[in-house]
Design a protein that fits this description.
By secondary structure, this protein is of the alpha/beta class. Helix 9 links the parallel strand 5 and strand 6.
Length: 494
């Protein structure tokens, strides 16, 4: 398919983007981000962190919202200072009877931003329409098996024919991991070029150390919990499906059957990391982020010896991800949660009892004000400089930093992903090469998305001392929490 087809078949559509699932917890923040309502963001100052061009982009695009209840959508738009003329699409339910209304909505926009989870229940039909009608699609799903089933049902081939780019995992799962890995390898290439390196790369490895300051309180929303419960139940009950029924590190890459590298397995243990000089343990979102990042590694050939786009290399690459814990005890708790996870039935019971949030509920403004994330990515390679079996090692560390990862930064990440496709199609590798189909954020938007996120206030930095960054991260988090309690009183709760 040529680039003119995939880039131009939506140019005359009425809207630039439509938000599907606008009344959910993340959907409300996405609408607030588009309408520049800084009063809804507590972990960063929306007015100060974004460049003037970023603000202009959000002011000039034509957008609409969609959901199941017109009254709820109208109330939402009023609450986030959106223009009263913002168009509304009402889709009462996702079923065959409403398919014509779904097609009508999808055909009117260049891109659908889907925030309606669980995605296998509320976004499946939306994806099919986008693939068939040539409409780009981005979402914040954390449901890898659902994405794989969409591919296996032929949606990928359909999207390639229509020119639609389908980009899942465009929130905290898995932008910092996927785009961060690309950024780390770029910095590794710069180091290699600066040293005059040009030999054969024997092995590349990236380890992502995830740091999340949550104030000592879980920060998941009800929608995220509902997706987790449904995904677990589906995994346990879909043994008759022709698609994979278990998430594994290479769920989306074709070399999954022959890659047995121990560094490509999911983490199950707590251990002490020399890179960050801290205890680490299994990261809860690893089973989403690792398959997503490995897809980029496979299709962009991160193992290539001379360039990240050289497709002739047979060398190896591995990616792994862990959570940095403030103490050894906290790391051991992460290990127990991985080896003895909470049963879905127990989670459902806790949701009904009000001990966990219900769909539409999430962390309070006070809680969000102290939330932050940092992804430290350590990229390493071994090189045979003269092809004479003498190895040279290189290592570089980068950091991606932001505020509340699950909701405030996620709403920013997914909207900026959509704006890449809408405003800068010729700078998006997945579009510039004339492609469509299911792609990762690194494959489709690549370095263009890094620049957009930087302009939106997310930091991408090369760092010299990983331990110093980790120590500073925890101390900054504690400082924010103390400041919040001083404002609200010593008994203030998150």
């Amino acid at each position: 398919m040529n680039s003119s087809n995939s880039n131009n078949n939506t140019q005359n559509r009425e809207f630039d983007l439509i938000i599907w699932g606008a009344t959910g917890f993340t959907g409300k923040l996405a609408c607030a981000y588009l309408s520049n309502d800084r009063s809804k963001f507590y972990s960063y100052n929306l007015q100060n962190v974004c460049t003037s061009q970023n603000k202009k982009d959000r002011r000039t695009i034509k957008w609409a919202v969609a959901g199941r209840s017109k009254s709820k959508i109208s109330s939402l738009l009023s609450s986030v200072s959106a223009p009263s003329s913002t168009p509304i699409f009402v889709i009462p339910s996702i079923d065959d009877a409403n398919k014509p209304f779904i097609d009508d909505m999808v055909s009117k926009t260049k891109c659908i931003v889907s925030l309606a989870g669980p995605f296998q229940l509320y976004s499946d039909s939306i994806v099919e329409s986008c693939c068939r009608l040539g409409t780009h699609y981005v979402d914040v799903t954390g449901e890898p098996l659902w994405v794989r089933r969409c591919v296996d049902r032929g949606y990928d081939e359909m999207a390639k024919r229509s020119g639609a780019c389908i980009v899942n995992f465009c929130g905290y799962d898995s932008i910092p991991s996927d785009i961060g890995c690309l950024f780390a390898l770029d910095e590794l290439e710069k180091m290699k070029e600066g040293e005059g390196g040009g030999g054969s790369t024997l092995h590349r490895k990236v380890t992502c150390y995830q740091c999340v300051f949550d104030g000592g309180k879980p920060s998941m929303s009800g929608g995220t919990l509902a997706s987790d419960v449904l995904t677990t139940n589906t995994t346990q009950s879909s043994s008759s499906s022709s698609s994979p029924t278990m998430i594994h590190p290479h769920l989306f890459s074709e070399n999954s059957s022959n890659n047995k590298n121990k560094n490509n397995q999911f983490q199950t243990k707590a251990w002490y990391s020399k890179d960050v000089k801290s205890w680490v343990g299994p990261f809860p979102m690893e089973k989403i982020n690792v398959p997503a990042t490995n897809r980029s590694a496979y299709f962009l050939n991160y193992a290539a010896s001379s360039s990240l786009n050289n497709n002739n290399s047979q060398n190896t690459f591995s990616y792994q991800e862990v959570a940095v814990a403030p103490t050894q005890k906290a790391a051991m708790k992460l290990e127990r949660l991985r080896t003895h996870p909470l049963p879905p039935s127990k989670m459902e019971q806790m949701i009904e009892q009000g001990r966990l949030p219900k769909p539409g509920q999430g962390p309070t403004p006070s809680h969000r004000s102290v939330l932050s994330f940092m992804a430290l990515l350590v990229a390493e390679e071994e090189e045979d400089p003269n092809n004479n079996h003498e190895t040279k090692k290189r290592k570089v560390c980068v950091a991606i930093k932001g505020g509340d990862p699950g909701y405030e930064e996620t709403s920013k990440m997914v909207i900026e992903s959509a704006l890449c496709l809408i405003l800068q199609p010729n700078s998006c590798p997945g579009l510039a090469k004339g492609g469509g189909g299911f792609q990762s954020s690194a494959m489709c938007m690549g370095r263009t998305l890094i620049t957009r996120l930087q302009h939106a206030g997310i930091q991408f930095l090369k760092v010299e001392d990983a331990k110093k960054e980790v120590d500073l991260f925890w101390s900054d988090g504690m400082k924010r929490m103390m400041e919040m309690k001083e404002k609200k009183g010593p008994r203030a709760k998150l």
